[in-house]
């Protein structure tokens, strides 16, 4: 049975840990870390099988784990990812926006080859990435429009230099239009879907992003359009925010659990 180290004990990390503890993911959670020791202790208290709380994020991959699961932040990816691969552990990344930094992407890509390990990126809060990957060489345009309740966007870096008052929005309002690279930089915890889409397709500079704040919605909606020599592809995903953290879609959590379950299982694999 595979052993897992968990980096980040927030909403997503907690749900992954509970899925392991319940047996849904056939693995053992052996070690956890969070910058807040209180968060680590709170998580461990919910589990029947108690993992060890480590004192430093870099220690996670020094133990005999098969994979380290990052569910913390883009900064955590930049700080820890390379050492995980150097210690010859696989890595699952939830804060995919970190990979839109070209230097980070190149360093980690090379490390995967050098140390013969794999980085896993769950599809998160959107579907259709298998199709996008299949036709990436024939893509000519790729866009995503994300609509969320204003409270799901609060705290984003974008608003540090914006006059937009989220509390004053009374109807669907476009608050951002730009590239995926810009969007992920300005909304680092809100728009990981744009990072995943651009990495699957034509890159972050060529992927268009629109973000809409709608006070009348109770869902996170992602509308994706792709066109090129292959034809046209359009799909829309509506999913509910997690009850504990409105910035996180429930689908993103389920996607992470399924990716890890597949990693830990010997079975027929479906999809590209």
From TrEMBL:
Instruction: List ligand-binding residues for NAD(+).
Output: 125, 192
Report the EC code(s) recorded for this entry. 1.4.1.21
Gene Ontology process terms (BP) = NAD+ biosynthetic process
Single GO term (MF) = oxidoreductase activity, acting on the CH-NH2 group of donors, NAD or NADP as acceptor
* Aspartate/homoserine dehydrogenase NAD-binding domain segment(s): 8-122
Question: Which residues are named in the active-site annotation?
Answer: 222
Under the heading Gene3D superfamilies, the entry gives:
Dihydrodipicolinate Reductase, domain 2, NAD(P)-binding Rossmann-like Domain
Q: Which Pfam families match?
A: Asp_DH_C, NAD_binding_3
Task: Work out whether the entry's keyword set contains NAD.
Answer: yes
Q: Which InterPro entries match?
A: Asp/hSer_DH_NAD-bd, Asp_DH, Asp_DH_arc, Asp_DH_prok, L-Asp_DH, NAD(P)-bd_dom_sf
Q: Which UniProt keywords apply?
A: NAD, NADP, Oxidoreductase, Pyridine nucleotide biosynthesis
Question: Where would I find the Aspartate dehydrogenase domain in this sequence?
Answer: 170-257
Name the NCBIfam families for this protein.
NAD_NadX, PRK13303.1-3, PRK13303.1-4, PRK13304.1
Additional comments on file? The iminoaspartate product is unstable in aqueous solution and can decompose to oxaloacetate and ammonia.
- What protein family does this chain belong to? Belongs to the L-aspartate dehydrogenase family.
Tell me the protein's name.
L-aspartate dehydrogenase
> What species is given as this protein's source?
Marine Group I thaumarchaeote
């Amino acid at each position: 049975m595979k052993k897992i180290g968990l980096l980040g004990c927030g909403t997503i990390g907690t749900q992954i840990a509970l899925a392991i503890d319940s047996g849904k993911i056939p693995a053992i959670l052996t070690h956890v870390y969070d910058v807040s020791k209180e968060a680590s202790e709170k998580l461990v208290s919910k589990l029947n099988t108690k993992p060890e709380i480590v004192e430093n994020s870099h220690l996670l991959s020094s133990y005999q784990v098969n994979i380290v699961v990052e569910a913390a932040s883009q900064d955590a990816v930049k700080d820890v990812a390379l050492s995980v691969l150097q210690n010859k552990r696989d890595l699952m990344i939830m804060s995919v926006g970190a990979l839109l930094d070209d230097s980070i992407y190149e360093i980690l890509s090379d490390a995967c080859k050098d140390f013969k390990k794999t980085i896993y990126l769950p599809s998160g809060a959107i579907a259709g990435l298998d199709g996008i990957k299949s036709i990436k060489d024939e893509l000519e345009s790729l866009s995503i429009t994300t609509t969320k309740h204003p409270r799901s966007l609060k705290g984003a870096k974008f608003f540090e230099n914006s006059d937009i008052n989220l509390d004053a929005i009374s109807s669907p309002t476009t608050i951002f239009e730009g590239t995926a690279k810009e969007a992920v930089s300005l909304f680092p915890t809100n728009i990981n879907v744009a990072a995943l889409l651009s990495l699957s397709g034509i890159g972050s500079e060529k992927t268009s992003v629109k973000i809409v704040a709608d006070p009348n919605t109770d869902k996170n909606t992602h509308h994706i359009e792709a066109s090129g020599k292959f034809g046209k592809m359009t799909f829309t995903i509506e999913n509910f925010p997690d009850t504990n953290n409105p910035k996180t879609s429930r689908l993103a959590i389920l996607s992470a659990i399924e990716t890890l379950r597949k990693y830990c299982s010997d079975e027929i694999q479906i999809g590209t």
